[in-house]
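debug: dumping io for the single-chain case to check the tokenizer round-trip. Nothing else runs in this session.
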Amino acid sequence: MDNSSPVTPPRNQQPAPEKRIDRRALVVLAALAVVAYVLDQTTKHWVTSTMVEGERIPVLPPLLHWYYIRNSGAAFSIGENVTWVFSIIMTVVAVAIIVFARRVRSIGWAVALGLVLGGALGNLTDRLFREPSFGMGHVVDFIQLPNFAIFNVADSAVVTGVALICLLTLLGIGADGTRHGRGSAKGASGPSDDAGETPGA
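debug: decoded output
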């Protein structure tokens, strides 16, 4: 007859403490979003105030021109017939980033999300407040490169931020600052492998 008593977990075990908000990452995210937004809106105001729609100005020919157009689609003139859809998408993206921001503890992720947020808000402002109507506004584009779509500062910020997110993901760096993938797996399995080795084998 087995008289051994069942093993019970310790009662004084405390739950893991909740991680605090990383204020530094939050400040970086907000600052990048503000810089991207202000730069985007400032350049668009300059273009609409000094150029006529359709005007083309050489800057560094033949590599760079200012070419003022109004785009009803998404970044790089994609989906010009469904402007309202992109207005909704940009709103959802901006709200999602703002909600998620308190969980970010990686400076790299803060930079990436700040760029995406600032760019999204920059183009969303155009869609909401420019002609022809609320939510259907045309985005101001003016940067022209050879054999490439015409774009603006907001497009550049979004694309750069998304590319950085992809890079961080490939490197195994999470938004909470932890590392995943091969490096962490080797670190976790290393000690047990060494302990299992037979001396002199």
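debug: round-trip ok. Strands lie at 56-60, 64-71, 139-144.
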